[in-house]
Each structure stands twice: as C-alpha cells, then as structure tokens.
Design goal:
It contains eight helices and no strands. By secondary structure, the chain is an all-alpha fold. The protein folds into two domains: about 100 residues, Rna Polymerase Sigma Factor, Chain: A, CATH 1.10.1740; about 80 residues, Winged helix-like DNA-binding domain superfamily/Winged helix DNA-binding domain (Arc Repressor Mutant, subunit A, Orthogonal Bundle), CATH 1.10.10.10. About 30% of the residues are buried.
C-alpha cells in the first residue's frame, strides 16, 4: 500500500483488501469494529457471542471484499453482513433477544435514580417483546443513525417495510409503556 491505510477512503480500503492487503483489513476493523460490535451486542445481548460474530463479520469481509459492487456505502455493507450473522445466530439459538438500553445518567437523588432504573428496566422489557426484525430497524435508525434507505439495504427489505416496522415498533412500545404507567416522550 503506497499511502497510509488511515488516509484511504472506505472504498479504497476494500479495493486494497480485495488484493489481500492485511493493513486495509486492520484499518476497516479500527473504523468499524466497535460500532458493529455494539450493534451485534444490542441484537443478541451476549458479549462473548457478539465478539465471535464480529470476528465472523471481518472474516467474511476479508473473503468477500472482491465481491463488493459499490451499490451501497461500505458501512452499510458491513452492517448488512453483521445483521445476517446475528439473524442466523438467533435463528439457530431460538432464544429470546433483549435489546440493551443505555441507562439514564444518574444524579444525587436516590429515589429519582431508582425510578430511572425501574423505567429503563420497563423499556428493556417492552423492547424484548418486539420481534428481532423490529428491534433491528430501531437499533440501526436510533443508535447508528442510518437512513431508512441504508437500513433497507442492511436488512434486505424495501424502504416502505422499514418505515412500517419503525412505525409498528414505536406504536407497540408506546402502548406497552403507557400500560406500565410510563408516559413516553415521543
């Protein structure tokens, strides 16, 4: 590689990777390893498995870089690979998936902190009742800031289906939270 891997675009890194450049793989891992791990972790809620799946994702990237057609952003392609790995694992496990929720920042009021923790648990329980497809689109839109078009590419469905899943998931969560006595900020 003539230039530093850090100075290359994602597409250039994939081109180098397709020619067997291990430094390019290292740079892609540096750029996307943490966000993809977090995505996997939120989908499957098992850190060890998420770590294993992350390694599978980058092995697939190593083996498949030459097949990247450039019809999507590299990051979208990577999330799509991760999504398929997670869904395959979930299907094999047939386990209940729990979405990880970021805890609200604590403060000095123990009663308010306990209420915040209780509400976070309630939201986590409500998310656990969603299908993996609905949790995945919420995760990609709200935690990874992907557009609906990019989410559609990741999960392999039309944009309209993504919009429908988001709408269904939000409506369902609002209903569950209201029944729990929590008024969600919509």
């Amino acid at each position: 590689m003539e230039r530093s891997p850090a100075s290359l675009t994602d597409r250039q890194l994939l081109q180098c990777l397709a020619r067997g450049d291990e430094e390019a793989l290292g740079e892609l891992y540096h750029r996307y390893g943490t966000p993809i791990f977090n995505y996997l972790l939120r989908l499957i809620h098992e850190p060890k498995i998420a770590e294993d799946l992350l390694q599978e994702v980058f092995v697939a990237v190593w083996e498949g870089a030459h097949r990247f057609r450039g019809q999507a952003k590299v990051s979208t392609w990577l999330y799509r690979i991760a999504h398929h790995r997670a869904v395959d694992w979930l299907r094999r496990q047939r386990s209940v998936v729990v979405e990880e929720i970021e805890r609200l920042p604590g403060d000095d009021d123990p009663e308010e902190a306990a209420l915040g923790a209780w509400q976070a648990d309630q939201v986590r329980d409500a998310l656990a009742q969603l299908s993996p497809d609905h949790r995945a689109v919420l995760e990609l839109v709200f935690y990874h800031d992907l557009s609906y078009r990019e989410v559609a590419q990741v999960v392999g469905c039309p944009v309209g289906t993504v919009k429908s899943r988001i709408s269904h998931a939000k409506g369902y969560l609002i209903g569950v939270l209201k029944r729990m006595g929590i008024e969600p900020d919509v």
